[in-house]
């Protein structure tokens, strides 16, 4: 075995050791899935998207899936909650009082998609 081969072998071994040390250090700093814990009494708030405006219609898509649901915004709070008129396509008309549209509170910060719709023709 020559000196040249022995230097090459030492260089390769040193490179392997340095790589192994770097991998061990990187593995110790975190994991693929981080765990986040909230202290007791902690609240998480999602603000109302700033583009939402009172009187406009929006189609909301929710994390559970399904088709978008259309609502007209009546009142906006800054903590994500909005008061809306429920569109007729979202409810069974048999359960409605004639001439009245039900209202409900929605948390707009939890929607996965919000699309502005054209105004109704009336």
What can be said about this structure in brief?
By secondary structure, the chain is of the alpha+beta class. It is built from 1 helix and 5 strands, in the order H-E-E-E-E-E.
Describe the protein's architecture and organization:
There is one protein chain. This protein is α+β, with helices and mostly antiparallel strands and 122 residues long. It folds into 2 domains: 1-35; 57-116, SH3 type barrels, CATH 2.30.30. 21% of the residues lie in helices and 23% in strands. The chain has 1 helix and 5 strands, in the order αβββββ. The chain has one helix spanning 3-28, and strands at 57-61, 69-76, 81-86, 103-107, 113-116. It has a 5-stranded antiparallel sheet with strand order 4-3-2-1-5, with no helix packed on it. The longest helix is centred in the first third of the chain and has 26 residues, at 3-28. It is elongated, with a radius of gyration of 29 Å. The N and C termini lie far apart (93 Å). The model has no long low-confidence stretch (mean pLDDT 81).
